[in-house]
Amino acid sequence: MSLTLHFHPLASFCWKALIALYENDTPFAPNIVDLGDEQSRTAFFRLWPLGKFPVLEDSARGALVPESSIIVEYLELHYPGRTALVPADPEQALQARLADRLYDFHLHEPMQKVVLDRLRPEDRRDPLGVEQARAQIRAAYDMVERDMAGRQWALGEAFSMADCAAFPALFYADRVEPLGQTHADLAAYLARLRRRPSAERVVQEARPYFHFFPYYDGRDP
Predict the structure, then answer these.
(1) CA distances from 204 to 31, 128, 200, 210 (A)
(2) Total domain count for the chain?
(3) Which of 3, 19, 56, 70 could join 28 in a cystine, given CB atoms 3.0 to 4.6 angstroms apart?
(4) Terminal CA-CA length for the chain
């Protein structure tokens, strides 16, 4: 087994890489990084000094691959499977990459800003920044609601890297800024994603850690 994924089961960006691996039953060795453990933290920073996961290590090719989107692209290039996560058609591939970036930058990152602010001491919180992040999340909801009208997956009928990006972003954002009753197509899309075996698996594996999530309300996610 040449692939090792360095990650944490609760980390939302790690879910994107895990979903890509699980979609195609790609064999890999999981290495859970505990940043609270000095030995684990030191070993990971030695491997990747920026200290952000996930990171994919490929011993067969001598490659170290950071960043969740690049990991998905790398897997598609070197370890393709039954689910083509990056469409073969160049125009469709461009749309998949665009959707991936939109989910990451305009939904995932503002969600993380709200979550991280909750973890700060009260005297160091940023109420204005949090409200701006929430507004960005709501704007992203509106955009995806329009895009998902009549669609099964982010690009249409085929599951892609865009859907790998969408699930963790939407799953956690819905807990930070609940969808409510105003985004029926988006809510239905999230429900379809959740039923996908690869997505359900990441949720199951994260369950022991959900109590660390500051917006966890004790209910079964």
Answers:
(1) 17, 34, 6, 10
(2) 1
(3) 3
(4) 32
> For 146-187, what is each residue's pLDDT tens digit?
999 999 999 999 999 999 999 999 999 999 999 988 899 999
Helix (H, G, I), strand (E, B), or coil: what is residue 29? strand
Question: H/E element holding 6?
Answer: strand 3-7
**pLDDT digits 0-9 by tens, 6-62:** 999 999 999 999 999 999 999 999 999 999 999 999 999 999 999 999 999 999 999
Q: How far apart are CA 145 and CA 188, in angstroms?
A: 10
CA torsion, ordered 94, 165, 173, 184, to nearest 10 deg: 70
Answer yes or no: is 132 within a domain.
yes
Q: What is the CATH number of the domain that holds 135?
A: 1.20.1050.10
